[in-house]
Amino acid sequence: EAGVVQSPRYKIIEKKQPVAFWCNPISGHNTLYWYRQNLGQGPELLIRYENEEAVDDSQLPKDRFSAERLKGVDSTLKIQPAELGDSAVYLCASSATRYTEAFFGQGTRLTVV
Amino acid sequence: GDSVTQMEGPVTLSEEAFLTINCTYTATGYPSLFWYVQYPGEGLQLLLKATKADDKGSNKGFEATYRKETTSFHLEKGSVQVSDSAVYFCALSNFGNEKLTFGTGTRLTIIP
What we know:
The complex is a heterodimer.
Chain A: E1 5-7, E2 10-13, E3 19-24, E4 31-37, E5 44-50, E6 53-56, E7 65-68, E8 75-79, E9 88-95, E10 103-104, E11 108-112
Parallel strand pairs in A: 2-11
Antiparallel strand pairs in A: 1-3, 3-8, 4-5, 4-9, 5-6, 7-8, 9-10, 9-11
Chain B: E1 3-6, E2 11-14, E3 19-21, E4 23-26, E5 32-38, E6 44-50, E7 56-59, E8 62-65, E9 75-77, E10 86-94, E11 97-102, E12 106-111
Parallel strand pairs in B: 2-12
Antiparallel strand pairs in B: 1-4, 3-9, 5-6, 5-10, 7-8, 8-9, 10-11, 10-12
């Protein structure tokens, strides 16, 4: 069974440019998470979806970040415009329900120059 | 708010040595506790978990016991192997707050 798939694996952009990350969760998983992991730190939750609904986006910087999960399956996280401080690894995870084990993708490493 | 404090790394051990990685937490309520592992080039994987006080989680020779009185969840392994080299994250999740709060991670390197 395929795990959580993220793309791209790596992205380098100039500041003020837009960027988007894509996540395909494990089939049948209703809950989807986006985490951000800064260098030398643990991941921090940005947003959690239950099916199509964003049920916890309290940590998402809404002035420049947006996310969507169309049809309750794939999800896209966007940053516009990117800032130097956005350089990090962006992790997507999914779980069957919000109470069960979360499985993580390999992440997208973003470098803003 | 909830927080996790992990033993700072990096940690370097010889093969077959005993491993302890310390983890303490601050949380309201009765959190579930986890250890995740990140092998080079791979995503985070759940290593073990415990959902209530005095529970012991175990997997692949690793163990951790949920100690409510000391708010700790230390990771141990009796004899490490080179293949255990990875970054280890302690984490917690509170019921009704379905997100993982992670520690900063501990990089473990095992030398032959």
